């Protein structure tokens, strides 16, 4: 029975792979694609790299499906989440570098500790507050950013249209209560290899 659940989850992962994680249905995906400053070809290449890395990680350890998050922007791979040992963190970095087209790998994986409900709830609250602030800020294209929080430390990955937008995102993060540190990996559109026309 347990294997059937894993197979179902694995199948579901690939079936929903064409729909953006932050969207609802095809309309949301279309809007995400339209607002993304990367060219369509770059978006497809990044998506293929992301799914390929996810598949390799799940093949290595089924628990990575939930505990490890990946994002690929213009061939740059960003990894967040939690693993059991430092050796696992190194293995995941090696696998990420083996993905065809990888230009760089930023591994922000943390080593798991005992579950702390209070800390997890605070981290979720911080992520939700920042996500809401980005959505309501008219100077920011919120769909271009991924946010992860671990022990009051915010990790922000995404693409900014301008330097001002990047500063605005960081400023919004600084205004969230209880945040101890901000790790920003925000690329500028001008830094992309291939831009949308």
CATH architecture of the largest domain: 2-Layer Sandwich
Q: How big is the Rg?
A: 17 Å
Number of domains: 3
Q: Please, how many helices?
A: 7
**Fraction of residues in β-strands:** 15-25%
Please write the CATH class name of the largest domain: Alpha Beta
Helical content band: 40-55%
Q: Give a count of the beta strands, DSSP E runs of length 2 or more.
A: 6
Sequence stretches where pLDDT stays below 50 over 5 or more residues? 17-28
Structural class: alpha/beta
Note the gap between the termini. Answer: 50 Å
Order of helices and strands: HHHHEEHEHEEHE
Shape: globular
- Describe the main β-sheet briefly: 3 strands, mixed
């Amino acid at each position: 029975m347990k294997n059937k659940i894993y197979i179902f989850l694995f199948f579901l992962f690939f079936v929903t792979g064409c729909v953006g994680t932050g969207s609802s249905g095809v309309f949301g995906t279309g809007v995400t694609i339209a607002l993304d400053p990367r060219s369509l070809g770059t978006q497809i290449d990044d998506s293929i790299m992301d799914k390929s890395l996810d598949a390799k990680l799940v093949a290595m350890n089924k628990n990575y499906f939930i505990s490890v998050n990946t994002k690929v922007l213009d061939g740059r791979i960003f990894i967040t989440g939690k693993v059991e040992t430092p050796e696992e963190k190194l293995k995941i970095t090696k696998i990420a570098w083996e993905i065809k087209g990888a230009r760089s790998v930023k591994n922000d994986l943390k080593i798991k500790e005992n579950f702390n409900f209070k800390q997890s709830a605070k981290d979720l609250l911080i992520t939700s507050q920042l996500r809401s602030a980005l959505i309501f800020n008219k100077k920011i294209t919120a769909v271009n950013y991924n946010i992860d929080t671990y022990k009051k430390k915010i990790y922000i990955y995404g693409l900014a249209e301008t330097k001002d937008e990047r500063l605005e995102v960081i400023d919004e993060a600084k205004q969230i209560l209880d945040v101890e540190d901000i790790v920003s990996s925000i690329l500028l559109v001008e830094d992309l290899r291939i831009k949308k026309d």
